[in-house]
Structure formats: C-alpha cells, structure tokens
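Hi there. Long-time user, first ticket. I'm pasting a complex I've been working with (about 510 residues overall). I'd like to know whether the download I got is complete or cut off, because the file seemed smaller than I expected. Thanks.
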Amino acid sequence: MIHKFIFDGTRLVLDVNSGALHSVDEVAWDVIGGYIPGKCEELVNKYSALHPRHEVEQAVGEIELLVEQGFLFTGDPFHGSWEQPDHRVVKALCLFLSDKCSLQCRYCFARPNVSSARSAGLMTEEVGAQAIDFLLRASGSRRRIEVDFFGGEPLLNFPVLERLVSYGRERSLALGKEINYTVTTNALGLTRKIGDYLCENQISIILSLDGRQEVHDRMRVFSNGKGSYQSVFKNILGFIQAHPRANYYLRGTYSAYNLDFSDDITHMLRQGFSRVSIEPVIALAQEDYALAEEDLPVIAKEYEKLTREIVSRLEEGQEVDFYHFNIDFDEGVCLPKRLGGCGAGVEYLSVTSGGDLYPCHQFAGREGFLMGNVNSGVVREDLRQLFRNAHVYKKEGCGSCWARNYCSGGCHANAHLFNGSIYKPDQLACRIIKKRLECALYLKAYQAMKENNGINCAEI
Amino acid sequence: MSKHIKTIVGPYLTKAIKDRGCGECQTSCQSACKTSITVSNQICLKKKNE
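Hi, the file is complete. Here it is re-exported in full:
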C-alpha cells in the first residue's frame, strides 16, 4: 500500500508498510499511481501518452528497483492478522491527584466528574502510595515505568505529589526500577518554588495555554467567568525563564472558536516558547465549540499554514519543536508497538482520587469501565482483553488506512465517546490526524532534501 | 542515481521486526486531550541502547 500527496508542489509517496518516504517528479507520480507488478510494458505504453517514452521507461526502472529492495509497494509483514503479545504488565499510571481545579475550562472532559463521583477532592498520600505499589508490582520485569500527575489540577495537591515522588523514587530504586514522572498543569499554582522542585526532580511538565489571550480567555476561565490568561502566562513565562532547559511542552486546545489556530502557535513562538503543541477539542456535536466535518477544509489549511510558518522559522535558524510534526524516523518505535496502540486498559491505567482503576484518564468515571482498584488490581479481565485486542487490524477501517502505523488506530476513548465502541475510530479525528501527518512528512522531506541538497537521502 | 525518485526515508518499519515488541518504550497516548505522546514521535529504547 502507498499514499501519495502533494504539499506546495512537492510530490511525496509514502510506502505504508515499510515507512519509506520518497519525493517524486511528475512522471514517477503518474506511473506509481498506475503501477501493477509485472506489467512494465503496459505501463510504459500507457504513460508514454502523457510523458516522453524514455522518461517513463526510466521511472518504471526506478520503481522496479525500489520494489525489489523493499522500498515501495512493500507487503504487509503480518498479512493483516496479528495478535498483540500479552506481557501482562502495567507500566504507566495516570493519577487523578486532585479532582478539584482552580479553573472551570468550558471544554474540560473531566469537569462533570469533578462535582459528582470523584468529589472527594484530593488523593491522599495513602491511596497514592498504594497506586505506586500496585504499579511496581504490576510492571513485572519492566524497568522503566511512568506516573503522570493529572486532575483536576494536580498542583492543588502538591504536598502529596512531593511525598509520592519521594516514595516512588525510594521504592523503585530498591527494586531496580526507574519511575519517570510527568505533571499536566494549568500553571496557576506554578510558583518559583514548585517550578524549582519539578526541575530538580526531572519531572516533565505539560503547561496548558491556548495561545492568544482572547482565545485562551474564552475557554480557560475561573469560576467567576474571568479569563485566566494573564495569571497563567505570567507563571509560564517565569518558569521557562528560570528553567530554559526544563522538559516542558506548552499545550493548547483549538475549537470551533479558533479555527485559525496556527496564529495561536505563532503567538506562543513569538513569546519565546519553542516547545509547543495544539490539539483539537474533544466535544460532542451539541457543544457550541465542537469541531464539525464542515470545519475540516479550514483545519487542513491551518495545518498547512503552520507547516509553512515552521519552515520559515527553521530557515531563520530558530528552534521550533511542534510536538505533532516531530516524527522520529531514526529511532522510532517498532512495528508491533505501532500496531498495538496506546496500551490503555492493558499497560496504561488511570487511578481516580479514591483509588479506582480505569482504562485511561478519559474513561475515568465512565459507566462500565471500572477495572478494579489499587488494592485489588485489575479484576475485569474481560475489559483488559477487550482493550488488548483493540489494535489496528481489529479496528474498523484501520487495516486499509495509510496512517495506521503513525496513529495506531487513534484514541479508544474518543471512539467510544462518538461511536459507542472502542473498535470504531472517530472519523473526524482520523481526518485531522491524517492531515497533520502529511504536514509532518512534508516537513521531514523538506529538512532532509535541504540537508542533502536534493540527492537521495536514505541509504539504499 | 535515481532521476525521478528521491528516497527521503528508508524502510525502517520492516527492519528488525523479529526482536522488537519488547515493551520497554514509553507508554503512548493517542488522545487529543493530553499531550502525552503519540507513537510516531516516540523512540525505541532498545534500539537507542544498542
């Protein structure tokens, strides 16, 4: 299977199963589109009507060579059927450290839960320690494991965060393991002291900022409806200035109200932040800010605009790291990992403030998805298997999709939210991801071609 | 040298499938609500350590 697309006149061909990426001219573009193995003569005759015959013959020869070498029209190594290995380990937990939040963001997926099932508020040190004990037990022989402090707003429970980091470090060291911590925060509680602590302890930090003030203030509001931009921006700026080498990402959300979201990324870059990300809002159609199918052409244009903006900044020698254009081709994960997906419900679980286990942070509190608790461990083996089997060869439409090795079948929680089944991906998200991937692949091609002055870039 | 086709990235996915799938890599998250990590920008820790 191949995928062909054009970005600003650059014709690119992705060989889906091998991951090889080629830049082609008009002749090869046409011939690849009609390629049938073993039908060279017919191909030459057919496309000689459009291009000079000797050019078509050359292109066919190059295609044949690439096919032979496994660079083009590579077959599926698993032939459409694959069984996810069952390592029976949990290697990452997302802890709802606080159900409470200092903001009431309009699009927050966790908000309904804050005032209902998980209203107890803050995770206690005891529950947190039990969660870490569970992770250390359930991770078996895995050495590197992960804990993400989430909420609500996790910094509202900072004393417990500190104690859990110390506890986790001590316990993991004794077992020869290593816990990597992440905190996802709205930055309102990000004081100098807390920032110093996070950096000193090598804790990765995701900072929520939606971009321009008017965009941020429309959605990310205090309980009185007032926008939070000024306070958030001040803290983020202070943090990055104090810790320029911190392992951080600025993370924004775009909705129907800022379909011109490339301007929000530009806004972040102009403020001097180089590690940035923006993602589509998750919302049901009845919400005024929800994205709809008719927004897709505008969204596609915005990703293209963003790509050009990044190219232009790279040309000027600026450092730009837009999270979702950052594909690692050299040391990227293996094919089995790509087929298996995010691992939610299997190797990744969320823990509510009360200690209940759910397949991931988005499933927390969703009826029918309670998997156990930090003391019992996972007791819903049926759910575990349901998630383990939700890989790209089992998800609807993924087996024949060119993007499957980059998105791994998408988000289970979105699939369930929009289509009632984790096996039916949300098509709106799929189309956005595919556009984003094309831009990322173009950016890679642009950089590689520039570095190599347009000659072949990969070792053949 | 190819005239019509320039290879930007070689066939990295089909290489070394056999010894892969060890699971030591970081957990990924495909959700749009949380910039954790997606598989396309993750690294293989096994390969990195080789």
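A couple of notes from our side: The first strand of chain B starts at residue 5 and ends at 9. The radius of gyration of chain B is 15 Å.
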